[in-house]
Amino acid sequence: MSGILTDNVGRASGLKKAPTVATGRTLISTQTVALGDSASSISVTSGIDSTYNIYEWIFTELETSNDNLKCHIQCYTGSASLESGSIYTFHYNVASGAGSGYNGINADSGSGGIEVQRANGTGTGEVGALAFTLFNPAGTGHYKIVDYTGGQHNSNAYYQAAQGGGVFELTTAVTGLKIFPDSGNIGATAALYGFAKS
To answer: S-S: 176 plus which of 31, 76, 94, 140, CB 3.0-4.6 Å?
Structure first.
């Protein structure tokens, strides 16, 4: 009886069916880049538009070829035009194992990207994961808000968790995203999801 309206009770014929409403999140695309592919970045340049208000870019098996590196995210506008200027602001908290406590990392303005991971390790079995959320990318009236959570077994051989957020300081519609390390190459499986509009 899924989708049958309550006002059908007592009707002899002509049942009304409720309209279909999209819920949850929809997988838009996936890509897998092996560390051995010698890729200096991973980008998604299609699938981000006005279809959804919220997009999430999720990474598993996130690796870097060089030890003790940070990873950053930049955005694309228009027809895959990379915004690499000083338009990014962010803050995130890092919680590390081995009694290292908590640290706040921030760039109040003028950064060339949103820092999302720190001190990635390259030892046997060391790997990271990340979930990056972009809100209302097609909007042209306000800056773009992002948030993220993730972690990695890091270059000091213990787990490090990170949670934060930031701003793309532009009112142009965002059409894509790019992740890259400070240097060297990156590998991961990346999945892009869209969340249904309410």
So the answer is: 76
* Backbone torsions φ then ψ of 196, nearest 5 degrees: -60, 140
Domain containing residue 107:
25-195
Judge whether 112 lies within some domain. Answer: yes
CB 71 within 8 A of CB 181: yes
Assess contact for 137 and 53: CB atoms under 8 A: no
Whether the model clears a pTM of 0.70, i.e. scores above it, the answer is yes
Classify residue 15: in a domain, yes or no: no
What is the rounded average pLDDT of the residues 164-170?
94
Flag whether 17 is in a domain.
no
- β-strand 186-195 against 54-64: which pairing, if any? antiparallel
Q: Which residue has the higher pLDDT, 21 or 114?
A: 114
CATH number for the domain spanning 169: value is 2.60.120
Please state, in angstroms and rounded to a whole number, the distance separating the CA atoms of residues 81 and 95. 34
Q: Is the pLDDT of residue 21 over 50?
A: no
Q: How many angstroms separate the CA atoms of 93 and 19, rounded?
A: 43
5 located within any domain: no
Number of domains present in the structure of the chain: 1
